[in-house]
Design goal:
Layout: E1 2-4, E2 8-12, E3 18-22, E4 28-32, E5 45-50, E6 56-61, E7 66-71, E8 76-82, E9 89-95, E10 99-104, E11 120-124, E12 130-133, E13 140-141, E14 144-145, E15 153-155, E16 159-163, E17 169-174, E18 179-184, H1 194-201, H2 207-217, E19 223-228, E20 232-237, H3 240-243, E21 245-249, E22 254-258, H4 264-272, E23 280-283, E24 287-292, H5 294-303, H6 312-320, E25 328-333
Antiparallel strand pairs: 1-2, 2-3, 3-4, 5-6, 6-7, 7-8, 9-10, 10-11, 11-12, 13-14, 15-16, 16-17, 17-18, 19-20, 20-21, 21-22, 23-24, 24-25
Amino acid sequence: HILDAGTTLVVLDDFTRVYAFDRESGKFLNRIGLREPDGEKYLDCEDIFLSQDNKEVGILDRYGRSISFYDLEGKFLREGASLEQQDNATSVAAVGDKWVLCSDMLDDGPFGSKYTARQFSLVSLDSPLVIRFAGYSPLTIDGAMCEISRRPLVSMGASATFFKCFNDTLFSINGDRIIRPLMKLGLKKPMPDLTALNDSCGGWFNFRNLRTFCTNTDSFEGFDKIFETENLICLTSAALLQDGFYWIDKNEGKGYTLPFDVNLDNEYKRVLAGETIIDIVGSNHKELISTMNPLVLKHVHDKYRDIEYFNEELSDMARTVLPDGNPVVLIYEN
């Protein structure tokens, strides 16, 4: 996950570590959360968010069940809200400067779990108040919450956009705690019948069972992540190879599907030609942020000598990138 703090990119890696890089040059600046002599304040960073002025980084600690704040230089500032003992928040989005929206989910497991159904929670940043939105549970079957989407919410400054899994409507929540339907999605496939899905899974829910059921019934497996700018909303499918990306033009209020080429070499060739975007990892008001493995970039450059690159800078990067280096960050304007 990558967040844009103006001149700095804040990066959460796959190992729960957080870093800051200079946006213009790509130069590594510092680790966020590494304090001497006692190291990080957080136990495990599951997700990150920025304050409204982009000066502070919020750390969602899944196992410590807390939210803490650091400056862009990596120094610990203060402890924020503490979540309840049973919370297992996996993603977070800022709602103005007073609240954050958390998705509280249990990892996949049996429907008959002893845990109650989880839901979205609105957490106050300046008081102990935590507000549950049980009516907007991402997915609840037989009283248990099952995780399907990895990022069902995104911050838009004064508000946040979110979706329920297996739901064709996007919702918005603002700092006054008002939830409203934002847009109904026109999808090509129907949502799965939850009762039939429950019966098919035989009391045990996981991604493989979901995929098998949706393939056999020609139903929609669901969205996996959401990203948003002033003009666009991008929803990535949980079954990307089959369903591609779902793009929404906010000005027109219309959506369309961008198919995904199952030949990954062809798909990355299209990326370098500026014809598509994949591996989206972040967004801000005006841009979508994507990454590409440098080994893939070098491979596609060597294989397809006839690529008409989107711009000269991308062509130069493809020729000179170190295959064993860090991921290449691609930034797309509205």
